[in-house]
Amino acid sequence: MTSAVPPEVARRRIRRRVALLVILVGIVAGVFRPRSQSDSAGSAPAPDAPAARPARVVPDSVRIKVEVINATASRGLGRLATAWLRDKGFDVVGTGTAPEAQRRDSTLVLDRSGHPAWAALAAEAMGGARVESRPDSLRYLDVTVLIGRNWRPPPQALYP
Which of 10, 18, 42, 54 gets the most CB atoms within 10 Å of its CB? Predict the structure, then answer.
C-alpha cells in the first residue's frame, strides 16, 4: 500500500528544498570568496595602516623625566599610561605599583623638581588630573604620576 502525496504538499517540499539549497550556496559563496580592496573601504582601517598618534605636548628642547605609579587594582593600567605619556613626549624613566593601602580614586600629578608648568603639562596629558608640589631632591625625577581609577586609557590603539 502506497499512499499518494497530494501535489500541493509535494510542491511545498520542493520549494523548501530549493530555498534551503539557495541559502546554503549563498553562505558557502560568502565564506570562500576572495576579499578585494573595495570590501574594506567602508569598514575598519587596514591592519597595516598607521594609527594616528596623539599630539606631542612636551616641547622638543625639554626633557621631562616622569615616574608612573599604578595606584589602582587594575593590572596593566600603568603600562598603558606609560605608553600614553611617552607618545605625548614625556620621558618615562620609572614605573611601579602602589601598595594596596595607597590606592587612589583620582589621578594625581606630583611636581618633584620645582617646575609646576611641567607638572601641569603632565596633568593635562592625563585628562585634567590634580597637581601637587612635593619636591624631592633625592629623586632623579621631575614629575610623579599616580594613576587613579578615574583615568581611562585612550580608545584608539596606542601601538598598532
Answer: 54
